[in-house]
């Protein structure tokens, strides 16, 4: 039996990222990427923010399997698919714990829902930075519509 080796990411043991730049990237990550409904505009916004081979780790609450999305184009396509699935939902920053930075790790809190219930879903992204750009990020749900916690 042969095992397949999964692609991996490597991180620096002594990161030297600019915290202010990280905060700006995370703000644009929510507003100009996840908040953008046009896939072409989103793609342009992603170029200066993410490495070409960015990896997005998604939790598996709905499918039962965790998803791993690799590459800017695939991240863009996944965001578009989710927006098409929930066209009346809007993402905004969650002012409770909005952005935190430590070394090369950033955390940005956000909320998602229709205008009448903008915090139907609360979550955060953990973003790993390398050379001023997002190398990988993870989604963690904090509040889901049924009130459950993952």
Automatic annotation (TrEMBL):
Pfam families referenced in this protein's UniProt entry, alphabetically? SnoaL_2 (PF12680)
Amino acid composition bias (Polar residues), ranges on this chain = 1-15
Domain SnoaL-like spans what residues? 44-135
Query: What's the domain of life for this entry?
Result: Eukaryota
InterPro entries associated with the record? NTF2-like_dom_sf (IPR032710), SnoaL-like (IPR037401)
Which stretches of sequence are listed as region Disordered?
A: 1-22
**Protein name per Swiss-Prot or TrEMBL:** SnoaL-like domain-containing protein
Q: Which organism is it from?
A: Hypocrea virens (strain Gv29-8 / FGSC 10586) (Gliocladium virens)
